[in-house]
Design goal:
148 residues; alpha+beta; six-stranded antiparallel beta sheet; 28% strand
């Protein structure tokens, strides 16, 4: 029993050593993984972050028929998934009648000095499901820029 506990403790320490807090230099792993998750726990997305996201996946053909408010909810879900959630954890959003979606981000990886993540955004509208996939990289100011 003690050996099993020691093994679990050692594994936990190894995993926690892979994560670090964000730094002002932007070189740390995405710091939010240690923070709270869920729909109400993240900070609101600022206008500058929304602009840097250039509409994300939802701003492309995935959300072309959504109204402005629903696109905003969906874009905020993309940001929360990229910035605040662990790999594979869905971030759900709810739009107008019979409209919802979820965003799931993959593990972060480095490209040069930037952290990047692939992610999937699923939109369900009137029972029909549409899926978009993309990659975004994190800027020093906390915004995410989608790759073309």
């Amino acid at each position: 029993m003690i050996i099993r506990f020691a093994g679990i403790l050692a594994a936990g320490l190894l995993v926690s050593g892979c994560m670090s807090a964000p730094s002002t230099g932007g070189s740390a792993l995405i710091g939010a993984f240690a923070g709270p998750t869920g729909a109400g726990s993240a900070q609101p997305m600022s206008a500058s972050i929304a602009e840097a996201m250039a509409g994300g996946l939802i701003g492309r053909t995935l959300g072309e028929d959504l109204d402005r408010a629903d696109r905003q909810r969906a874009l905020e879900a993309e940001y929360r998934a990229l910035e605040y959630t662990a790999s594979g954890e869905p971030v759900a959003w709810q739009g107008g009648a019979r409209l919802s979606g979820q965003v799931v981000a993959a593990p972060p990886y480095r490209v040069g000095s930037q952290n990047c993540r692939q992610y999937t955004h699923t939109v369900v509208q009137n029972g029909a499901e549409r899926v978009g996939r993309g990659t975004a990289c994190r800027n020093e100011n906390g915004s995410w820029t989608p790759l073309a």
